Amino acid sequence: MGLGDYSHCRQRMSRGLHGVSGRAALWFPAFHSVHRTPCGTWRIEAQEQARASTPVLEHLRRQLERAFQRAAARGRTRRAREAVAAVAAAAAAAREERTRVRMECALARLRAELLELRFQNHQLARTLLDLNVKMQQLKKQQDRQRASKSQSPEDDAMNPECGNA
Question: Where is this region: Disordered (predicted)?
Fold first, then answer.
């Protein structure tokens, strides 16, 4: 067996995973099964590829880790913004509710005052009506008294028998 006998092993290793060219640098023997062939150099080539791909894999791992951290930070930031927006909306709703309650209380006080004023107005109107009726009665009584006084001297003058006897 000469050096040419192992060319098919090198060819298979350079093709990478399942014959897809260009992915040999990403192949790591600890995670993938290696086709065993009757050549003895497959372990050496796999170890060399593993050593060569380790910095690439480490770089990719760091990039992925940073990308996940950024995505998580964005997610936390978004969640924080959403939480702040929710708190602000709740605070605005609470302010609106307090304002509405204050307005309802003010309206209730105004209604109570209006009712009290209406009651007082009704009482005053009743009092004025009673006073008016009383004034009319007094006026009629006074007119009757005047009429009776004015008739009394005429009666005395007309009827001399009653007064001179």
Answer: 139-165
